[in-house]
Amino acid sequence: MSATMSGSGSAPCRFAHYFIICGIDNETGLEPDALAALYQWLEADRQGKDPEALAAGENFDQSPLKRTFKSKVLAHYPENIECSPFDQDAVNMLCMPKGLSFRTQRDSRTPQFHSFLITREDGSRTYGFVHTFYEEVTSPQICSAMQTLHQMHQAEHNTSAHNCPSSSSSSSSSSMDSLASSLDEVESPSSSSSQGGRRSCGCSGEGYDSVRDTLYVSKAMCLITPMPFMHACKRFLSQMHLAVTSHQPPPLPLESYVYNILYEVPLPPPGRSLKFHGVYEPILCQRPGVGELPLADFPLGEAFRLLGVENLVQLFTCVLLEMQILLYSQDYQRLMVVAEGITTLLFPFQWQHVYVPILPASLLHFLDAPVPYLMGLQSKEGTDRSKLELPQEANLCFVDVDNHCIELPEDFPQFPNRTEFIQELSEVLLSFGLSPTGGNASPEPAVSTQSSTLEKELKSTSLRELVDDKRNGNLGGEALDMLELLQGNPTLERLQALAKRTGVKVARLEALAAGQKAVGDEGAGGRSPVEEEELRNAKLNVQLREVFAARFATMFADYESFVIQNSPDLESWLTNREQMHNFDKASFLSDQPEPYLPFLSHFIETQMFATFIDNKIMSQWEEKEPLLRVFDGRIEKARLYNVRAPSLRSSVYQKCTVLKESAQAIEQRLRKIDHTAIHPHLLDMKIGQGKYQQGFFPKLQADVLASGPTNKWSNRTCSTQRRVDRHRQQNEHLVLDNDLKEKYMQEARNLGKNLRQPKLSDLSPAVIAQTNWKFVEGLLKECKMKTKRMLVEKMGREAVELGHGEANITGLEENTLIASLCDLLERIWSHGLLVKQGKSALWSHLLQYQAREEKNELLSESPVSNGQERRKLESSVGLPALRVSVIQDMRHIQNMGEIKTDVGRARAWIRLSLEKKLLSQHLKQLLSNQALTKKLYKRYAFLRCEEEKEQFLFHLLSLNAVDYFCFTSVFTTIMIPYRAVIIPIKKLSNTMTTSNPWLCVSGVLGDSGTLQITKNVLEMTFDRQNLGKLTTVQLGHDNSGLLAKWLVDCVMVRNEITGHTYKFPCGRWLGKGVDDGSLERVLIGEFVVPCNDDEGGRGAKTPPLQRSPSQIRRISITSLTGRGNKPTTVQIQESIGEAVNNIIKHFHKPEKERGSLTVLLCGEGGLVWALEQFFQHGFRSARIFQKNVFVWDFYERVVALMENADQIGDLQEIPEPLGPNCESFCRYVNAVNNMPRNIGKDGKFQLLVCLGARDRLLPQWLPLLAEGPVNTRMYEENALLRDKLTVSSLVGVLETLNDFPITLETSFTKSVEL
């Protein structure tokens, strides 16, 4: 069997795939780090300099001991594995992210351990574990090269010494310089800090003298594994290093141990444990079973210690909501521990975006990736966070691991039951002796060489074990049988006791028993301290993860009920995936407890949730994804035991119930080892090669490590692999063509994911440009999807209001979509950014634009907004045009004291522009200043791609087709200037009045109070705290003077910030002795949709909201006798049904989204309007002394008759007093008549209907009005009121309102005394 065959056949089942050595190549000598050079090229490009003109020379300002030099992969075994191809550049970069580092004998040379992972394009991962140590440089060429570099540096330093102060004070305006400086140096040698003033000029310590100093260089050993067995790999590598540095050679050549771990140590099967052998000690590892949480070996306790429980839960929430996460630490291993820890806690979800726990300096340009990411950045000792300027911070969660602190994005929702959740996690930590606040225990020490006594001890034990492996329980078979026989035999036991008493020793037996006892101790409580620590970590890990998993199992216990599965087969589902709704979000949210909603409404919009639901749907046709299988199993189990609270909406916190069992499972596996791997053994090697030399890692014999054994085990795995392959090929014929399926699957999973993982191995400028182009395309696609979703959801809602279909958006969901649009705009404005002030890239651009425009304004002494920017309203007769400009809206936001941050101002500005339907126009205006855009952005930035920018603005323009109130409804406490104009009917002469008019404007958030209007002035402005959407206006006057009558057409009110204009139609007289004698009217508002001919997108408009009843109703009843105005009996009955139905629908909406009930009661098509049509039907048209007759006149006569009858009853002493219904009707009519307000007869009718609906009396009053002599006198024979059947059915309809708590605005009910 060939090397590659044997290598690849068994590879999937092997513990480790590669063993690698990285370090300095003595043949090529010192080479400056190519990646550092590329980084300088990128920096020059970013700063607008010509990158090609960069000096090709060395950077002599820096001490050579501080510079980065190129490391190389010196050897890797085996050459390649088919299932996991070796990526040399990526491995080299991640093994030594800072390149080679040099030390002298004066510096600290403590070995370091770190891990990394490589994510392939298909999302699969391999893990790397690296032990870095220092080795003496023996090559005279390298020592002399270092000496020369030091002399050149010294000369440079001497010539530039007098420039030092000025150079230190000048700093570039560029936003990422500090970031560069924090990463372009390796850790400075410890001695250099003592140099004081010399160091500031770039001179490092005492430098290097080849005669006086010994030079050391870093070298790294690395294991690449398919699974993250961190502790096992760490122990193996540290034992390998110990073997190299100890005084005596290891028991076997190093090749034996490398060969053993590469080819003879298998992966433990699920649910089993494995023991294999390092150089000196056995190493244990275990793998969770099929139904358990997947393997996670990175110490979670360490992550909690570094950040504290509260910070970690906040970071966890940011990761769940797919924000940008940047981890910052000096220690690579800490970055890995926090990144891996936080992603393992996501179970059953998985992070779907860019994941680079260790970001090499050469990949810094990835920080302006306009996508969610989780990256780790190495900080330099002493770097101040405040100097670290990042391309985008609006949606960034910055985690300073070393200082145990975290900076959170603004306005992000809290995790449900956060306090109880933190409490439960704290209890788990305390049970293991850890503090929940974190940051107090001593940090984990670096890997250090053990003392020589320990070394000797280990040497002797390892040699002894090779002879007689008692420690592993591997007694010789015969000896073990003999011992069992003797121990189980009572006669022999008595003989043994007798022998002891008489002083005779049974030496062989005692030795056997002692050996077995040692094994027992070791297996029970007598584990080594390292093993105890590993067991404790494993138990803590699993218990913490169980608490997180239990939260999701509770929150998503019923998720399956909301999954929409509407495809007959996988192919049709994959083909239509983008157009389909896979999850009923609105129903799911309506089923959740109120406190959970802010978090859940954001979370169900994430890519990780979408992928989770996709996996669920695909599990109909293919094997369940492992995480999903475990999660569904848990939910099923919980249902079986009925752990769940009976009430779905309960937000009562439920603790995790399986902590003990999960820890026991791990302990049992580690107590009873299931598999022991083959021992390391001598290989068939050439003698004399790889001779042991203390302190130097030998050159291993490649031929013996190139391929594995052709033993039964590898043959078995090969045949298993062949069986699996055969099975897969059969399946391919049955289902889709596999390539096609894979393509669809990737497309389905990549929806919303704009970027593959950064490829570490190819970093040419062309590849970087290609990556940025992918970002641009991804942003455009995301913009298209978001605007389309916002439109479809919003239009769906309006269609429901018009009576079509089902609503599938809530106010909460709308708010989530708008917040997500704000985030997208911030990411677009951050892409390719050069200069930024503050945390928001968009607001920074707006401020620069404002400064330029205001400067131009001063120069030209003309207003910023030119004539074309005035927007006229179609029906805003009498309202002056509102000035429209980017600057004007910015000033509104800047005047809002409630908003304290730039990110908040940018979001408020976006919401305001969206509400005004000016977002696309404003951004177009902002980007029209091309000189400014060029100054602020790199060449590849999204905002400098003309075609994509145009498409982006067009997508935003489509949002003008619907009405948003996203500014008004969010900033409820701000002061807003309003303008009100009263428009009289012009054709009549007495448009002016001598009386003193007044006005009161009401909205969903409050009212303005009574505002006196200056006599004969028809316009006024007033400032009030945000009234929200306007609903009613009360208009009246005091009837003073000769011309006290007033005929008003309408009142217009405009919010001067948002430009929203409301029309309140009237068309009636206000005055005594005219119309219905009213001095005060309550007018219902209608929203005026702005029209603008020059913007095509604005022609499409939302249907108008309900408004004041048309003027037909407002003119007295006699005018209805004209032909063609009378509605039919069917129309009247339908309109009452419709009005009642609308009120019932209102109460079925969530409380925050109900809008105004006043409109449904008193607006056009409302209950009052419909009932008035009912009472007008068949009303006699005769005039009494030429006066108009109103429905209210009928009511008054009914009351008079009832009261009269009551009095007659009293006189005749007939025991028939008025019934409770008659009594209540009389009481209400009299209360309305007696109130001091003069609201006219129609106003009184309206008020009585509203009071009757509120107090559930309408159905009781109607039969009273349908009977009696007044009815026959004032109504014709065919009137609906005289039809008993119609009246009884109407009573039934009105009774349905009795189930709802109707509340009335104070503008109706004030001064009514009941």
TrEMBL record:
Provide the protein's localization: Membrane
Membrane recorded as keyword: yes
**Where does the PLAT domain start and stop, copy by copy?**
976-1084
Arranged from A to Z, the UniProt key words for this protein are:
Guanine-nucleotide releasing factor, Membrane, Repeat
Q: Please provide, in alphabetical order, the Gene Ontology terms of the cellular component aspect for this entry.
A: membrane
Which SUPFAM superfamilies does the UniProt record give?
Answer: Lipase/lipooxygenase domain (PLAT/LH2 domain) (SSF49723), RUN domain-like (SSF140741)
Show the ranges annotated as biased composition (Low complexity): 166-204
Q: Which InterPro entries match?
A: cDENN_dom (IPR001194), dDENN_dom (IPR005112), DEN5A/B (IPR047278), DENN_C (IPR043153), PLAT/LH2_dom (IPR001024), PLAT/LH2_dom_sf (IPR036392), PLAT_RAB6IP1 (IPR047277), RUN2_DENND5B (IPR047292)
Q: What is its main location?
A: membrane
Query: Where does the record place the RUN domain?
Result: 812-972, 1158-1309
What would be an example GO MF term here?
small GTPase binding
Q: Where is the composition biased (Polar residues)?
A: 154-165
Under the heading CDD domains, the entry gives:
PLAT_RAB6IP1, RUN2_DENND5B
Residue span(s) of domain UDENN: 53-623
Which parts of this chain are annotated as the region Disordered? Answer: 154-204
Family of this protein: Belongs to the RAB6IP1 family.
UniProt-recorded name of the protein: DENN domain-containing protein 5B
Q: What is the lineage of its organism?
A: Eukaryota, Metazoa, Chordata, Craniata, Vertebrata
